[in-house]
Amino acid sequence: MPPTETFRIPKHRRHVPDARQRVRKTLADWGVTGQLADSVSLLANELVTNAVTHCRVSDARVEVTLTLHGTELVLEVADPDRDRLPRLHHSGPDEEGGRGLALVEALADAWGCGQGPYTKRVWARFSSAATESAEKARVPVAS
What we know:
Largest sheet: 5 strands, antiparallel
Number of helices: 4
Helix content: 25-40%
């Protein structure tokens, strides 16, 4: 079974840095560092911010899941506002926001979203030799 880390935060902007730090710690524990860790942490920040900002369910919790499997690392962010799927928006130079999904598209190898029975989930997938070496570092070698 691939290593997976899942945690939840309250739907409030003040908890976004906590989510980013938790993602960064998990990646470090898995041996994922450098540019890949920077990209995953940045996109976690963007996706959690989007969930916190746009979820219309009161007292909701945002769920963050990281999964590392071979050469693939997947970041997923879920919230209970299942009917409000994100759309890529190309912001003009004078707009203050709206660039989160453009960053996701630029930095992830693939991304998408889907609806579950009670949630929506936005995911970003990263494929890299760095994830493979991190996965191998976690697996003890029998002598």
